[in-house]
Amino acid sequence: MSTLESKPAMPRVDVEIHYAHGGFIMRDDTYGEQDADSAAVFADDGTCIVAVNRAARGGWAIDCSDFGHVLTQSAYRRRFTTVTDAADYVAARMGVILCPVDAYEGSATA
Question: N or C: which end of the chain has fewer CB within 10 A?
Answer without folding.
Answer: N
